[in-house]
Specification:
This protein is of the alpha/beta class and 210 residues long. It has helices at residues 3-14, 16-23, 68-81, 92-98, 100-114, 146-169, 175-178, 184-193, 205-209, and strands at residues 29-35, 44-50, 84-90, 121-125, 135-138. It is globular and about 55 Å long.
């Protein structure tokens, strides 16, 4: 099977739930996902995407399944094709105050508030939200629902861009390479230099204790 055929087949797999809703007359189906719950540094970023059945780019999938280059290319196609996109960013200071789960939930709510269109149905990746329309939290939705996969790509590429900016401010930590995740090189840099303002200090207790 050629690559384009594989991508078309994967797109069809991801569209099952949305296709049912579109066929029933529900036009604005939103997908919500986040990036950055696990890293030691940087914000948590959520994205919400509403697609149209008339324009569904190939190559959309869980952001973790795509190379950085593919993610960036696919993000550009999603932005061109989507009916509506919003992004919610919650900073390190807030993460430290209210914990990472509540920060991710807050990022989801920011996305919903920023949408231009009012969604008629919302899918989230395992996150319960407050919403005035029907919504469904699905475990691993970024591998099962097209609009959530699209949101995962927008969230990840947006966060990666932020981490590259932080790398320019704090180049000694290598944020552009590991995006704040706890790689061995990152952990060693923290132990050697101590944390910088971009770090989530509540995530670093074990590393600093070592």
């Amino acid at each position: 099977m050629r690559r384009e055929e594989r991508l078309a087949a994967r797109r069809q797999e991801l569209l099952g739930r949305e296709q049912e809703l579109w066929n029933s007359g529900v036009r604005f189906v939103a997908g919500l996902d986040e990036a950055g719950r696990g890293p030691l540094a940087g914000p948590v970023v959520a994205a919400c995407v509403i697609m149209t059945p008339e324009n569904l780019p190939l190559g959309v999938d869980d952001s973790k399944r795509l190379s950085e280059k593919r993610r960036e290319e696919t993000a550009a196609r999603i932005r061109e094709a989507a009916l509506d996109i919003s992004v919610g960013i919650v900073d390190v200071e807030t993460i430290e105050k209210i914990n990472i789960l509540e920060s991710a939930r807050q990022a989801f709510q920011i996305c919903l508030d920023k949408l231009t269109l009012r969604p008629q149905y919302v899918f989230t990746d395992a996150m319960n939200i407050e919403c005035d329309c029907p919504h469904e939290a699905i475990v691993r939705a970024d591998t099962l629902v097209y609009s959530v996969a699209a949101a995962s790509i927008i969230a990840k590429t947006t966060r990666d861009s932020i981490m590259r900016e932080l790398d320019a401010a704090y180049p000694q930590y290598g944020f552009a390479r590991h995006k704040g995740y706890g790689t061995e090189a990152h952990r060693q840099a923290i132990q050697r230099l101590g944390p910088c303002p971009a770090h989530r200090k509540s995530f670093l207790r074990k590393i600093l204790a070592e």
